[in-house]
Structure formats: structure tokens, C-alpha cells
Amino acid sequence: MPARNQAALDFLLTRRSVPAKTMTGPVPSIDELKVILTAAARTPDHGKLEPWRFIVLQDKAFERIINEIKKAGARQNRPDDQIAKPMPHYTNAKLAVVVVEGVDPDASVPAVEQVYSAGAVCMALTNAALASGYGANWLSGWFSHDATFRKDALNLADNERVAGIIHIGTPKSEPSDRPRPDIETLTSWVNA
């Protein structure tokens, strides 16, 4: 049996995402980010398919993302308040990592398990950034599911989707905690 890692367990029991619109710089250096991405890539991946990849957004990339969100909103005839809602996440953003899901429909591993692997990468990436001393938040948004947005903003292939956009930075203030799930009401114990 592996040795208990109390520090890791304490981290997982107290981790909190930081609202993206409340983050600023500094952000991880390239070398720090490579460590965070390496940790994220140590995710369950049945069949060793790596059904995901990373796109690192920095600097002026956020201007393009904002413009493409506006275009997606107009295409979808969304109300102005829906189009405006994600803007604070990108207006002052310094760094975000897009986790791109790319399911291989011909693989022996079911597509749903490939999707789960991409989701696990998002969670691992968020936790690795938090464990590295930065703030992090896993977001997506209505626009990330728009095929034209995915193509024009991120140059994704037809079989690729956004699993998550992980914002990373320095929190302006300590985030407050939120109510957590009641494990007793969510757990069934099966003994026979």
C-alpha cells in the first residue's frame, strides 16, 4: 500500500477555485507552466490515446477571444447581457490554457471514456496550478460549444471540442469558500 500523503490530502480537502475575473499577474513562467501541464497530463487515459491537447492563451490572444465571443453571440442572437457575462474573464486575463478534447471514434476505447479523460485533465490542470501557488479556475461558456467559435478563435479541427478553459493567475484576494456537498446524502454503500 502506498504511503499516506497527508499534505496532498489536506490540499485536496481545502482547494478552492479562484474566480477568473479576480485574477491578475504574475502568472506562471514558461518553465512553471510546463511543470503544471506535465502534472495535468498524468491523468487516467485508457488506451494511452491522449484524446486531448493544450492551447496556451496569452497577451493579445484574449482580444481575439473577446471578438470571437461577440461574433458567436451575434450569430446565436443572444441577448447583450449573455454576451457581456463572460467578458470580465477575458478582458484582463493574463494566461489561460484551453484543454482541447479530440475523440478518436475508431479507437477501441469508448468515446465517453476519452471525454472523461479530457475532463480529468481539466481538473488535474486546475489542481496543479493551485498547488503551484497560483489561482486557477476551470471555465468553458456557451461560446466554447459554438463550432464557428472553435474554428475561428482556436483553429480546432471538426472532431475537436473545448473541454475547458483553465484561467491561471494571482488572486487579488483570498477567495471565500462555498457550501460543499453533503457526502452522506450522495453516497450509497453496497456490501452484498
Q: What does the model show?
A:
With 192 residues, this protein is of the alpha+beta class. The chain has one domain (19-171): 3-Layer(aba) Sandwich (NADH Oxidase), CATH 3.40.109. Helices cover 41% and strands 18% of the residues. The protein contains eight helices and five strands. Strands 1, 2, 3, 4 and 5 form a five-stranded antiparallel beta sheet that branches. The relative contact order is 0.22. The model has no long low-confidence stretch (mean pLDDT 95).
Summarize the structure.
The chain has 192 residues and is α+β, with helices and mostly antiparallel strands. It has eight helices and five strands.
Q: What number is the mean pLDDT?
A: 95
- How many beta-strand segments? 5
Helix content: 40-55%
CATH topology: NADH Oxidase
Main β-sheet description: 5 strands, antiparallel
| Percent range for β-strand residues | 15-25%
Q: If you compute it from the alpha carbons, what radius of gyration comes out, rounded to the nearest whole angstrom?
A: 18 Å
Structural class: alpha+beta
CATH-level-2 architecture: 3-Layer(aba) Sandwich
Low-confidence stretches: none
Number of H- or I-type helical stretches? 8
Domain count: 1
The quaternary state of the protein chains shown equals single chain
In whole angstroms, the N-to-C terminal distance is 25 Å
Tell me, briefly, the overall form. globular
What is the CATH class name?
A: Alpha Beta
Order of helices and strands: HEHEHHHEHEHEH
The CATH superfamily is known as: NADH Oxidase
